């Protein structure tokens, strides 16, 4: 009819838009079916949708078809299928926490391989428990280092969550104990933009969900420079966290490949005297 308008077809979201929605929006379609299970005990959980894969809920969910992913047991099979069907990702704001063992080479030489392996296993177990409780996206440990990413979909105040967790991790490894830590650890925290998505060989099953970008590289550098019992946090992350730690020591960090230095704060977890 004259003057009539053709119906406007709905916008089909791009892969990048779908990833950004999944990484920043708690109401994303991927999470709706499993929302009822998010507060049910059942560790470990899928690192994306938070569906419990163990505990009392694990066997029940298996009856619905949900189970650990075949190629990455840290995700559920539904998220694995979604990630494989949507290769790509999105650049988002997030916060990164790295923590590693200080002087691990000397420790390994002094303790011997068996004792050192047991020490690292305990460090991984304690760290992963704390990171999982903080809703972190936990990456595969590298050497003597644990790495976690705080996504806005799970922690809207991700700078504060990362900084609180870093302190909790240092306390859990004994840095608040007058007798000293059972393993010497330093941590780095930084916030900024990073790519989050699938990386791998297209057309194969060789892929993983990971985080890429300068924010991860900077955090690694901060963690490597942090002293035993210390959190070295970038000024941006410290200000964004909004947590009162008094007046932590200010440091200026030179970073390889960067023309401008990075302003940082050093937060020490001091032993508790009795």
Report what the structure shows:
With 274 residues, the protein is an alpha+beta fold. The chain has 2 domains: 15-86, no CATH class; 90-268, Nucleotide cyclase, GGDEF domain (Alpha-Beta Plaits, 2-Layer Sandwich), CATH 3.30.70.1230. Helices cover 34% and strands 22% of the residues. Strands 1, 2, 3, 4, 5, 6, 7 and 8 form an 8-stranded mixed beta sheet that branches. The model has no long low-confidence stretch (mean pLDDT 85).
Condensed summary:
This protein has about 270 residues and is an alpha+beta fold. It folds into 2 domains: about 70 residues, no CATH class; about 180 residues, Alpha-Beta Plaits (2-Layer Sandwich).
Largest sheet: 8 strands, mixed
End-to-end gap:
87 Å
According to CATH, the fold-level topology of the largest domain is: Alpha-Beta Plaits
Query: Residue-averaged pLDDT, rounded?
Result: 85
Principal-axes shape call: globular
Question: Uncertain spans, ≥5 residues at pLDDT below 50?
Answer: none
Number of helices: 9
Fraction of residues in β-strands: 15-25%
Order of helices and strands: HHHHEHHEEHEEHEHEE
Domain count, please report it. Answer: 2
* CATH superfamily heading of the largest domain: Nucleotide cyclase, GGDEF domain
CATH architecture of the largest domain: 2-Layer Sandwich
How big is the Rg?
A: 21 Å
Quaternary structure of the protein: single chain
> Regarding CATH, which class of the largest domain?
Alpha Beta
The level of helicity is 25-40%
Number of β-strand runs = 8
Derived structural class: alpha+beta
